[in-house]
Design brief:
This protein has four helices and two strands, in the order αααββα. It is mainly α. It has a two-stranded antiparallel ribbon with strand order 1-2. α2 packs antiparallel against α4. This is DUF485 domain-containing protein.
Length: 131
């Protein structure tokens, strides 16, 4: 038995797929073109739209997260209030952390699809050409 874990593979095996030359090619933009796009109003708009979503949502999530941690630490009586059987306020808040994470992800994907991706695709096409 060989010590080589890849001994059973063909001689020129690569775990990465080969890049196909037959597919659509994109032109490679020059550094000056990237600098021009970076100073364009469209790129500024893209950055602004991203930040308008990301910064407030990050702050809101961190406030919600630290509120949960602080309540768990300093308001034990309130967090251990039973709601239904063994289900208490603290457990519900903990589960809501997961719900809020999925909600923020869904909201970001929706925001990106509507507001960010079209502008980014336009800038990419301008730089690299049609796919």
């Amino acid at each position: 038995m060989s010590d080589n874990p890849e001994a059973h593979l063909p001689p020129r095996h690569s775990p990465l797929p080969e890049l196909e030359e037959s597919g659509p090619t994109r032109r490679i933009a020059a550094p000056e073109e990237f600098a021009r796009v970076q100073t364009s109003p469209e790129f500024a708009q893209l950055r602004s739209r991203f930040r308008a979503f990301a910064f407030p949502m990050t702050v809101a999530f961190l406030v919600w997260y630290f509120l949960y941690v602080l309540l768990s630490t300093y308001a034990e009586d309130a967090m251990s209030t039973p709601l239904l059987g063994h289900l208490n306020v603290g457990l519900v808040f903990g589960l809501l952390q997961f719900v809020s994470t999925f909600l923020i992800t869904w909201l970001y994907v929706r925001h990106a699809n509507r507001s960010l991706d079209p502008v980014a695709a336009q800038l990419r096409t301008e730089l690299e050409g049609e796919a």
